[in-house]
Amino acid sequence: MEYTIDHETAYHYPNAVSESYTVCHLQPRTNLRQYCTRYDLSVEPPARIFSYLDRFGNEVQHFAIMPEHEELRIVARSHVVTLPTSGGEIPHDVTAASLDADPLVAELPDYRASSPYIALGPEVARLADAVPATGDDLGAYFIAAGSFVHDAFAYRSGVTTVSTTVADVIDAGAGVCQDFAHVLIALARTRGIPTRYASGYVFRGADATLGA
After folding, report:
1. 8 Å CB contact between 73 and 79
2. What residue numbers bound the domain in which 26 lies?
3. Residue-level pLDDT at 199
């Protein structure tokens, strides 16, 4: 499939601002399942755009606008080609011992440890104890943890913000998709499974729009 994605962000300020600094994480990744063949970022008011590759392999753009302005408009246009997938088979016979023996795991310490929004505290430990037992099968555990999060938490907007931590989500028992992703990441990391957060777009069909 080929997609052209227009992503527009507009800021309207009640009073003119003299300086604004922006970092954009809008460029789709290129990997074995998809290719970003074109990416353009435009800014109004005009600004010189700089780019760098962060430590997670994401292409990042940033810019500063110094003249006073009451609006800021950022438009990212991407062209992405996706490849057919195999259907996402569930891996089996992956144990903690076999995972630790994989030499590539040593390169993923950030994906197994606590982070600012995903602190592996006592709240997460208690929640992990409630996930149905799957023995030492990490693949089965991940699937069970996903089903557990789906059943145990209510989807309710307005309960959380972009700064809400996993502990707060667990306490509220509700949230939105970002919160559920954070909870699942936390549960996976308690078992040593390297897990990261990824955002993107979901194609809902030719007569629908792309959803973030």
Report:
1. no
2. 2-82
3. 87
